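Internal ticket #5521
Category: modeling
Description: The requester needs a full-assembly model to guide mutagenesis choices. All entity lines are attached below as received. Residue total reported by intake: 653.
Assigned to: D.W.
Attached entities:
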Amino acid sequence: MTLPDSLLGLLVAALGGGVLVTALGWPALPGQPIGPGTAPGVLGVLLMGGGALLAVSGIRSGDRPRVRVHPGWRRPERLAAGLLATGGVLGLAAAFETVGFPLGVGVLAVALLWLSGMRHPGWSALALMGVLGLHLLMTRLLSVPLPAGPLRGVM
Amino acid sequence: MIPLETLTGALALVLTADVLLVILASAAYGLVLGAVPGLSATMATALLVPLTVFMAPVPAMAAIVTTAAMAIFASDIPAALLRIPGTPASAAYVDDLSALARRGRVGRALGLSLTASALGGVLGALALMLAAPRLALVSLQFTSFEYLWLALLGVSAAVLLGRGSVLKSLIALGLGLLLACVGLDTTAGLPRFTFGEPALLGGIPLVPALIGLFAVPELIRTLVHRPAVPPVAPVLHPARLFRGLPGVLWRRKASLLRSGVLGTGVGILPGAGADIAAWIAYAVSKRAARRPESYGAGSEEGVADACAANNAALCGAHVPAMVFGIPGDSITAIVIGVLTLKGLNPGPTVFLTQPETMTAIFLVFVLANLLIVPLGLVAIALSAQVLRAPRLALAPLILAACVAGSYAIDASAFGIAVMVALGGLAYVMEETGFPVAPAVLGLVMGPVLERALVTSLIKADGDPLAFVDRPIAAGLAVVVALAWTAPLLARRRRRMTF
């Protein structure tokens, strides 16, 4: 993905402006001119200045306001894999305690393998063994309470 | 110097079957945990504390020290093979390790990391052993002003480290520092940028953030871009790790020594741990390099210098912990707890009352760092099997490790969400030419920098000269100023030459 520097600069400057306005609204420490907003305020100014400079340099270099994405995103199976690795994991996080690590990550892993063209059952078996092994390592050896979900009685 | 009878007494405490067994078991444990992304050296040592209750002081400390040293080295293995730093200490040079691996030089990369880590660690251990009280006295003189300049030097390193545009590196640093502001403010307890989400009150969790910033973009590129990966040479034969290495190390002896000393010095400063030492040593190495443009793209020099510094810093951090009871980092905070548990209350008097035990603990540092070489070889040989599998087949397992690692630190699914969100941000940043490394350093250094800034502003009471009226603060201010102005002056000189 590529975005023109002029647009990126404007986005950064807008973020800096938002941070500065928010920080200015926070109260100072009693009897002091500084407080919780001091450091974010400085950062807001830094981002506004940096964003403005980036936008100006982008405009000067004559970049076009075009957003370009990597060709891989235009291929349906790769797009699905990318979305599964991000959105799918976010969805899993939302229901992590219910679905559990072995089942949730196991399904994601097999789906990713299929979308990536690794459809030999051996790869899926290996991935599932890896997920189960990781679960056992974390829960049994390190006492990390990774949820087992519906497999609670089995794991 | 240590009296001979103290040294022999200490050796008798260390060279026993149970201590050596504990060291071996802790080494294996540290290597495994350090190599699993998301499981930090701090987490590995913290998990050991319940076990140390049942041990004598020397094996207890041996377990902690060996685990930490091995975990710091082992974090370089996933950094090279998967571009995922096992611990934050590898973050500074993860791109170099990964680039070397992509070029089929994974053996050289890990061989350098292994030997430089051991050399730096031994150097730090010797410094700890011989000069602990004197070195600690220097860091005790630091006030918030010195810490502010030191933190500024650290974040300046982030921008110096940035490849490509300095402006984009600065903006990335700003984004990282902004992320560090999220959560309850330490001065007034005000929630900042939490958007009403209680899980954000504690700030952005560092481990999921690191996993997201470094691993997720790589995962997305593997799944979507599917770049052609050149075949990587296997590193199963130990000889391959060391082929040509003695010559490289000999040529770099001065810079390795400099990095070891620098790492020890940074480690001694409370709050500045192995990760900051690695960043600073890497930046110094880059500034002194003949080909600075190779840094971030597979620089052997950068890897060697940063590795030497981070293991040296691990030893250096124990100086204030053992001599004055001041933790240099989270691992030494655990060490102080273990020492107290064993009746060895850290402080100058413990060196008078229990000199043999303290010397034995120092010897354990040396031993643990020497053991990095043989045990690290085994760990590398086993890890190298990963290279034989296609990257697309590994992707689901990497994702599983990311999910487990992000969840593990707080036992909260919120960490998984943070990992994905910051991973998405890092992907967009890298695709649009913003380096991620400065953002990571901003996130790590943010709290230290803000605390030093606010305290210094209060102390200065409107007098700007207060920031430089102490000799060490003034010296550090000059170094920061030089760090920023030297590249501009060099560029101007080049223009005048041509």
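Resolution: model delivered.
Comment from assignee: Chain A has a mean pLDDT of 91.
Ticket closed.
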